[in-house]
Amino acid sequence: MTLQFTPRPSRHTPKFPNAIRRYRVQMGLSQHRLGAVLGLHRSMVSLWERGLRVPSVPRLFRMARELGTMPEALYHDFYSAFPREGASTNTAAA
Hints:
mainly alpha
């Protein structure tokens, strides 16, 4: 069975944007299979992919290893969304 990457709109705004689904599909894993490898139900993987929950640090590292990437790559957009310390958030003062 070939997995197909189809962008899916969500009615929920992701609180924790991530690239878990993209890496999972690249590795040819289903949510069910990734969940089984991590000892979880596929619904938890779905919650992570939709950005509604965040995995614990040990699970994040294990998931990254299973997906053949670094943990930082899975949540790159999440970390870059925060302003750097000392950076001005006021765009009007230029």
